């Protein structure tokens, strides 16, 4: 901040100089011009007296008397002019001095009232140290961000995630709620809000959390946070069959080979053991049916233009049917190129099945906002049939309509 105030002080000083300098020059010029005029008149009067003396019109005594009178008038006129100018000069100097003192104070006061010094200080801090060393430091910085920008929904979401990392679910509930108010019904925010409410309520789903989860799965049926939380809640409540069902859906939506697969499968195995010990029957595995094998990639000329953290939605739909996709997977642009398999386990709605007779349109859409309905770029394949066994190349190579 010190450089900002130094620059502001320099600008104020320059403004004062710009005002004072012309006035000072004007007063100096006026004084010089008046004095020069008086001296010129005095010299002219002396020359005239000397000429009259040489012509014999005046005696030497008369000339000396006249010169003394001219000198006296010169001194009196100069003193009178200075006396008239002095109060005005002192008044102007006083006004300018007062302005030079008041102007910086007024600038500082107005900036404090109308400016954003906290935001500027925070911006400088983030420029100097973009990475923080601890969760507590991240929370402190993000709290200051939302204080300066209370309508920043993404910042509220980040603050909620930080609170969850610090085991502060009650604070996270408030942060996710504020994020939801700014961003609208975003699936990820709804799921995180439900999770925060679950932990803040002693590992119990209250009605608000259930409503948030229902809305999440309505907007994004394979949301991993929602499916994982519902599985945990069902397991903790003794509904092992329900837990297995949620975790199987989560497993099918998780990229093979990722870190979460082993943990999810471990949860399913534990739920099956508990269910078997209680004499229950595990739910049947989901029949995945015919599949579509894809290699999803981005055209090289587009990759540099896109955010690597943007979401990529890969989905299949009937060309002449409703716009709602039949099956879909969510990826991240940084994962591409990637080999994936779409099956009816990726269905958006219950009861969806695929058959080899269906003609499908397969689309990959890039969405920086995470909204599957909107995107910036896409790739498309027509006349796709499930179960062909052929791996298709799906390249994102055009701007979205």
Report the top-level CATH class of the largest domain.
Mainly Alpha
* Overall pLDDT confidence: 78
Count of spatially separate domains: 3
CATH architecture type of the largest domain = Alpha Horseshoe
Question: Care to count the β-strands?
Answer: 8
**What's the number of helices?**
12
Main sheet attributes: strand count, strand direction, barrel closure:
5 strands, antiparallel
Helix content: 55-70%
Q: What is the CA-based Rg, rounded? A: 42 Å
At the fourth level of CATH, the homologous superfamily of the largest domain is: Tetratricopeptide repeat domain
SSE run: HHHHHHHHHHHEHEEEEEEE
Per DSSP, what share of the residues sits in E-state strands of 2 or more residues? Answer: 5-15%
Distance between the termini: 46 Å
Q: What would your notes on this structure say?
A:
Helices cover 60% and strands 12% of the residues. The protein is an alpha+beta fold. It folds into three domains: 2-115; 154-277, Serine Threonine Protein Phosphatase 5, Tetratricopeptide repeat (Alpha Horseshoe); 292-399, Sandwich (Immunoglobulin-like). Strands 3-2-5-6-8 form a five-stranded antiparallel sheet, with no helix packed on it. α1 runs antiparallel to α2 and α10 (240-253) runs antiparallel to α11 (259-277). The longest helix has 55 residues, at 60-114. The chain is elongated and about 150 Å long. The two termini are 46 Å apart. The model is unreliable at 28-33 (pLDDT under 50).
């Amino acid at each position: 901040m010190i450089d900002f105030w130094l620059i502001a002080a320099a600008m104020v000083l320059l403004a004062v100089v710009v005002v004072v300098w012309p006035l000072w020059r004007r007063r100096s010029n006026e004084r010089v011009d008046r004095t020069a005029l008086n001296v010129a008149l005095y010299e002219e009067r002396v020359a005239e007296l000397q000429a009259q003396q040489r012509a014999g019109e005046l005696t030497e005594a008369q000339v000396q008397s006249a010169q003394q009178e001219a000198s006296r008038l010169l001194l009196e006129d100069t003193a009178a002019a200075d006396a008239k100018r002095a109060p005005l000069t002192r008044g102007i100097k006083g006004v300018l001095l007062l302005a030079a003192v008041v102007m910086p104070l007024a600038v500082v006061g107005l900036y404090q009232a109308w400016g954003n010094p906290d935001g500027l200080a925070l911006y400088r801090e983030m420029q100097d140290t973009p990475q923080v060393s601890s969760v507590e430091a991240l929370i402190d910085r993000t709290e200051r961000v939302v204080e300066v920008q209370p309508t920043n929904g993404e910042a509220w979401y980040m603050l909620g995630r930080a609170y969850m990392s610090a085991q502060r679910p009650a604070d996270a509930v408030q942060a996710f709620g504020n994020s939801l108010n700014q961003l609208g019904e975003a699936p990820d925010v709804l799921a995180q809000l439900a999770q925060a409410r679950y932990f803040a309520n002693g590992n119990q789903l209250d009605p608000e959390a259930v409503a948030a989860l229902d809305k999440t799965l309505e907007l994004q049926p394979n949301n991993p946070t929602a499916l994982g939380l519902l599985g945990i809640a069902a397991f903790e409540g003794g509904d092992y069959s329900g837990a297995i069902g949620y975790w199987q859906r989560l497993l099918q939506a998780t990229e093979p080979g990722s870190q979460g697969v082993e943990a999810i499968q471990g949860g399913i195995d534990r739920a099956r053991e508990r269910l078997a010990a209680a004499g229950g029957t595990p739910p049947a595995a989901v029949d995945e049916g015919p599949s579509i094998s894809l290699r999803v990639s981005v055209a090289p000329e587009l990759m540099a233009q896109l955010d690597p953290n943007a979401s990529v939605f890969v989905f299949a739909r009937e060309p002449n049917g409703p716009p709602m996709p039949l099956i879909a997977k969510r990826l991240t642009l940084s994962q591409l190129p990637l080999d994936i398999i779409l099956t009816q386990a990726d269905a958006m709605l219950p009861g969806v099945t695929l058959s080899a007779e269906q003609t499908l349109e397969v689309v990959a859409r890039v969405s920086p906002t995470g909204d599957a309905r909107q995107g910036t770029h896409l790739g498309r394949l027509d006349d796709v049939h499930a179960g062909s066994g052929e791996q298709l190349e799906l390249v994102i190579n055009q701007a979205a309509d």
